[in-house]
């Protein structure tokens, strides 16, 4: 039903690591967003089984 291809659409070049930006991106990606986040986590857990 679903097919996951772990490949980027284009090549990414990183000149130097930036831990501050990495933490900011992770915070924005994983930050809880109220009821929607809770519902999505329940939905994910249901399909994960």
TrEMBL record:
Domain of life: Bacteria
Family annotation (InterPro entries): Ferritin-like, Ferritin-like_SF, Mn_catalase
Pfam family, one: Mn_catalase
Matches recorded under Gene3D superfamilies: 1.20.1260.10
Protein family: Belongs to the manganese catalase family.
Protein name: Manganese catalase
């Amino acid at each position: 039903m679903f097919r996951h291809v772990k490949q980027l659409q284009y090549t990414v070049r990183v000149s130097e690591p930036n831990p501050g930006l990495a933490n900011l991106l992770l915070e924005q990606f994983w930050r809880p967003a109220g009821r929607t986040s809770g519902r999505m986590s329940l939905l994910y857990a249901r399909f994960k089984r």
